[in-house]
Amino acid sequence: MVPCQGGEAAPAPVTGGKEPEVPLSREDGAGTGTGQPCLCPAPGMEAAAAGAEERRVCGCCSGSSWPCCCKALGTKKKAACPGLGLFYTVLSAFLFSVASLFLKKIEGVHSVEVSAFRCVFQMAFVLPGLIYYKTGFLGPKGKRIFLFFRGFLGSSAMILLYYAFQVMPLADATVITFSSPVFTSLLAWIFLKEKYSLWDLLFTLFALTGVVLIARPPFLFGSRVTGIEGSYTDHLKGTIAAITSTVSAASTIVILRKVGKSVHYFLSIWYYAVIGLIGCVVALFVMNEWSLPYCGKDRVFLILIGLLGLGGQIFLTKALQIEKAGPVAIMKTMDVVFAFILQILFLNHLPTWWTVGGALCVVASSSGTAIRKWRQSLKKAKQNEI
Question: In which residue ranges is the amino acid composition biased (Basic and acidic residues) (predicted)?
């Protein structure tokens, strides 16, 4: 027998009428990726040995016959499509932006009701996954309190963000949400004792500057504020809602870091959807705002918001599975670009230079935070290899 390399093998002479040596099995250490060639019978070797009626199999391939040897030297793995994770990120950003546009187009439906529909779609998607993976519906006993707060804060962030989209320009609300990485670093420093450097402080100040440029408080910019939707009171309420949503989303990320991989991500989304739906239903009855849209177009928009939001989450999750978090976070700034484009094309609302300046500050801050974290992770990975 001879080593098979890349599916090619040369026939070896059989001396002395001896039967070819039986290849090692997995337990014997062959074909375990240690650099040793796997021993597979060369073409025609089955009949060469005296009395060798059975066809030999490759021990490193769980019984697969030659030449289907997965561990053979020279066998190339199928290369992943380069840039696929970044493409998924851009697609996710586009779906989220279109869902936000449809939210702006809906008339007479409260943001809490829209959030309730979104939670229903989330539950319908996650429930089969919970059953398939047999994760249960409550999770580990020591992690349930974290899952509860993850669900509460995550759903609160969604409701507040939807409210901000309804009462202020689409681009303004989107830009404010991009300060989330900065708040995540700050909260991780407080609760997880992660390192918080002067660079992080600088990025935080940049993000806050961008938010101020978008909010444009009268005591800094005067009483005449232009480029907003409706009254300045609604604009200020939307700004506060967007900032609170951002802080809640950052808190959710910190909780997920605390939980780690001990809880399946389907279970995390399940808590998000269930607690969000319960909270939305209670709030709707308290505010007496529950009402189905009268227009058929608005009902279609509600369904599309649920589907697009779900699709955006799926593609973002797939992107993070095949691509590093740093490039994904940077590419996710396409959310801002799409928000500006959709606002101009379909809402006929030109952003002011204050909004553009605020967007540049926030995007620079979030991108800087993402690049710094990415470089730190690469440096740590190299140190671990050494």
Answer: 18-27
| Rounded distance between C-alpha atoms, residue 274 and residue 282, angstroms | 12
Rounded CA separation 216/196 (Å): 29
- CB contact set of 215 (below 8 Å; sequence gap of 6+): 235, 236, 239
Please name which of 268, 316, 277 lies closest in space to residue 126, comparing C-alpha atoms.
268
Is 90 exceeded by the pLDDT of residue 48?
Answer: no
Sequence letter at residue 36: Q
Helix axes of 170-177 and 198-215: crossing angle, nearest 10 degrees: 160
> 3-class SS at 107?
coil
Section 316-329 average pLDDT: 76
Nearest to 171 by CA among 384, 383, 321, 356: 356
Structure tokens at 258: 């605390």
Report for 34-38, 42-46, 175-179, 221-225: range of highest mean pLDDT: 175-179
- Is the pLDDT assigned to residue 126 strictly greater than 80? yes
Contact 86, 326 (CB under 8 A): no
Interval 323-349: pLDDT, tens: 776 677 778 888 889 999 999 999 888
Q: Helical H runs in the chain?
A: 45-48, 84-105, 111-133, 144-167, 170-177, 180-191, 198-215, 218-221, 232-259, 265-287, 296-322, 325-331, 334-346, 353-385
Give the burial class of 212: count Cβ atoms within 10 A of its Cβ; 0-12 exposed, 13-18 middle, 19 or more buried.
middle
What per-residue confidence (pLDDT) applies to 223? 63
pLDDT of 227: 67
Distance CA 213, CA 53 (A): 82
Question: Rounded to a whole number, what is the distance in angstroms from the first to the last CA of the chain?
Answer: 38
Q: Residues 134, 138, 139, 141: is their CA dihedral positive or negative?
A: negative
